[in-house]
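Hey, sorry for the delay on this. The queue was backed up all week. Below are the sequences that define the complex (chains, strands and the ligand SMILES where applicable).
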Amino acid sequence: MYDIIIIGAGVIGAFIARSLSIYELKICVIDKHIDAAMGTSGANSGIIHGGYDAILGSLKSTLNIKGSNQMKKVCMDLNIPYENCESLVVAFSNEEKKVLELLKEQGEKGGIKGLSIIGGQEIRKLEPNLNHDITWALLSKTAAIVSPYKMTINALENAAINGVEFFREYEVLDINKGSDIFIVKTDKENLKGKVVINCAGIFADEISKMVGDESFKIIPRSGEYILLDKSVGNLVNRVIFQTPTKEGKGVLITRTVDGNLLIGPDAKVINDKTLHETHRDVINYVYQKGLKTTDKIPLHQSITTFTGVRATPSTGDFIIKESEKCKHFINVAGMDSPGLSSAPAIGDYVLNLVKPMFSDITKKTNYTLTLPNKKYFSNMTVNEKKQAIKKNNQYGKIVCRCENVTEAEIVESIHMTIGATTVDGVKRRTRAGMGRCQGGFCLPQVIDILARELKIDKKEVQKGDKGSYILTRRTRV
Ligand SMILES: Cc1cc2nc3c(=O)[nH]c(=O)nc-3n(C[C@H](O)[C@H](O)[C@H](O)COP(=O)(O)OP(=O)(O)OC[C@H]3O[C@@H](n4cnc5c(N)ncnc54)[C@H](O)[C@@H]3O)c2cc1C
């Protein structure tokens, strides 16, 4: 019997698990995918928003501002790549400047520091590659960029080290509530729990419906991106947004925390929540929108495209509360942007909802909120590299040449508490396969290492989700 069952191993489920994991509670996180961060948390812009654009007093605004204030420390504690790179919202007319003024005013009322409106000359000093018809910009000093999948995986790793169990490939099919106990029916087994927390992202309305709560709908809105090579990552120094409209924040251009250039997303309501493909016409639209900000986008340097799906709530705001229809069932739903920026604050917010549900909740005597300090090999100094190789000669073997990922890092990623079990799992933890060749060179070696470390046949190694086997048979003996 679990005290708490968390449905969904995205960034929200992971940070809630982390916040709860320091208490004497038996907790599990379950996800239908083979790994954490395989939903929206694995495909977004990776921006920690300044917090000025959500309506003041809404949960989105409050939790974005709190989350963004916590983020630097959280990322340091959990080895999550983070860079306080700042952002600009650019305006092309005096009409748009008025929107910037409203955003600034709203942000300042919310207590956000470091907001200012700057003119053309200063903009071009900060960002020489932006188009010259940009006349004004809102500068936000607190905006930052992070690695969204590392953020999710490392928060869940922290929770797992504190004793939270993680069940992969457990799809929730139904939930029954007895007098006091939930039976969460999955395709593997039935799990019993006293409290259920619904963090199922774009499927949160369907999970909520299982306990008779249909008070909200999730409207899936896709966003497609173009990712460009690291060699052009410095086209911009900050996150560059266009002035927001009713449709959202619009197409942005940013360097990612790993050094690539990212352009996107569009925003389109879709019917099928399971579709994650990209489309030629949408990618072209994203490119054209990006050109409005800078006509210097080197499209020939693009290395991949991808789609993320927003869980837009029918209510307009984050839904974080105990269901009115079902006691001890907490919905954490409608987590569209700025869900990532808010995640640590959402963890604490949900902890406060959970505490009164248990009469004698006490802290564990032995817990941690930090992960051992670890640097990517590629970020080490020459001396640090030498030391690492001396301790473990697997650091001396580069497997992914684009990203300089060593065999030691891949082996470590497989043996984490919530270790990688697939090629994509290794990629999200180490960056092997994320570079210019997108795994073209390192894939065979990563398969070998996974098979060796997991003690499975190479044919059993999967790329991503269920059934994504890579090798089928020998073609040459
Ligand atoms: C295009 C785009 C750009 C964005 N950019 C930003 C940004 O720059 N900054 C920012 O702050 N936010 C951004 N966001 C929002 C942010 O990505 C989300 O708020 C966040 O990732 C939501 O996390 P989650 O854990 O709620 O959902 P998910 O990451 O989707 O996790 C939900 C999990 O539930 C699991 N699940 C669902 N149904 C079941 C079931 N039946 N059984 C078991 N498991 C189930 C899924 O497999 C999934 O892993 C963006 C979103 C999109 C789409």
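Residues 204 and 333 are 6 Å apart (CA to CA).

I'll add it to the shared folder too.

S.
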